[in-house]
Q: What sequence folds into this?
């Protein structure tokens, strides 16, 4: 994470804005906790850390280190599971191309001819020739 102190201070502000009262007794203790968080969570990806902070901001009390560890572990498990499922979906699609243009055209022509035969009226119908515009008797 670039500038981990900035992320930690923002997390602290997020918790305070959510109405969670920090257990700090003074500014010196706040700096101690910020330093502890930087050492413990400074190597995390920023989006993972921010997601955990947002999740913990909805709790009833200021998060303990144990709560943050559990949130990080849970988010990381979800991310790994998501990547594994995405990889499995991509591997399943690596087979032959399921869309064959020529076969589809042939099948559409067959369906049109079948429907023409099925719904062909018992009497002759004049059809209009698209190229000349004149009528043709069947």
A:
């Amino acid at each position: 994470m670039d500038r981990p102190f900035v992320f930690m201070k923002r997390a602290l502000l997020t918790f305070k804005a959510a109405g969670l009262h920090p257990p700090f007794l003074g500014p010196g203790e706040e700096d101690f906790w910020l330093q502890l968080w930087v050492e413990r969570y400074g190597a995390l990806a920023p989006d993972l850390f921010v997601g955990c902070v947002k999740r913990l901001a909805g709790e009833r009390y200021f998060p303990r280190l144990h709560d943050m560890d559990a949130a990080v572990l849970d988010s990381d498990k979800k991310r790994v599971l998501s990547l594994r499922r995405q990889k499995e979906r991509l591997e399943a699609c690596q087979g032959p191309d399921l869309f064959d243009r020529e076969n589809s055209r042939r099948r559409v022509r067959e369906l049109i001819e079948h429907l023409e035969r099925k719904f062909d009226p018992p009497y002759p119908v004049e059809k209009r020739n698209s190229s000349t515009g004149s009528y043709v008797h069947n």
Remarks:
- Residues 110 and 116 are 10 Å apart (CA to CA).
- The longest strand covers residues 126-128.
